[in-house]
């Protein structure tokens, strides 16, 4: 079932179960998906829907950070709960080991030993590999792994 249809049917289930947080989160997700559909002027496929969901998760993570800085743990917890609900519609995120494996293979394919100046090219190649495989990955996590791997390859 496409993500858009799944969200719609889950809204009905959340209404019947009287799950307020889930219902409000799913309504927000449906609105974001519908807005993207309107912008595109065509129905979304699952890949585009996943991009929208990824953006929503990123926004929530930024909000959590700001709420924690502002001493609003209650709002940060609400945002974290929303992230869990949204993530249920996405494939499993790539783990640290998987990210490291892809980054190392990209670095190994470089024609000359890479330096920190090559970070952008390595990031681009690694992110393209994850996109091609359909794996979901956090760009910030990939960036950290690339930095570490470039630093260790420089000292080796």
Structural class: mainly alpha
What is the total number of structural domains?
2
Q: Name the shape in a single word.
A: globular
Q: Count of helices?
A: 7
Secondary-structure element order, N to C: HHHHHHH
Strand content: under 5%
Compute the average pLDDT: 90
Provide the CATH superfamily of the largest domain: Uncharacterised protein YqeY/AIM41, N-terminal domain
Report the span from N to C terminus.
49 Å
**Helix percentage range:** over 70%
CATH topology of the largest domain: Hypothetical Protein Yqey, Chain: A, domain1
Q: What is the CATH top level name of the largest domain?
A: Mainly Alpha
Low-confidence runs of at least 5 consecutive residues = none
Major sheet description: none
Q: What is the tally of beta strands?
A: 0
CATH architecture of the largest domain: Orthogonal Bundle
Radius of gyration: 19 Å
Characterization of this structure:
The chain has seven helices and no strands. The protein folds into two domains: 3-87, Hypothetical Protein Yqey, Chain: A, domain1 (Orthogonal Bundle), CATH 1.10.1510.10; 96-155. The relative contact order is 0.10. The chain is an all-alpha fold and 156 residues long. The radius of gyration is 19 Å and the shape is globular.
């Amino acid at each position: 079932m496409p993500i858009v249809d799944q969200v719609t049917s889950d809204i009905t289930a959340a209404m019947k179960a009287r799950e307020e947080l889930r219902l409000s989160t799913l309504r927000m997700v449906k609105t974001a998906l519908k807005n993207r559909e309107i912008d595109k002027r065509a129905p979304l496929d699952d890949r585009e829907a996943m991009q929208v969901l990824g953006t929503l998760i990123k926004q929530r993570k930024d909000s959590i950070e700001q709420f924690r800085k502002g001493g609003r743990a209650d709002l940060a917890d609400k945002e974290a709960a929303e992230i869990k609900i949204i993530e249920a519609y996405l494939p499993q995120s790539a783990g640290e080991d998987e990210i490291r494996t892809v980054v190392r293979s990209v670095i190994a394919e470089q024609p000359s030993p890479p330096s920190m100046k090559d970070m952008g090219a390595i990031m681009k190649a690694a992110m393209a590999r994850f996109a091609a495989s359909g794996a979901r990955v956090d760009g910030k996590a990939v960036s950290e792994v690339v930095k570490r791997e470039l630093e260790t390859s420089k000292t080796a």
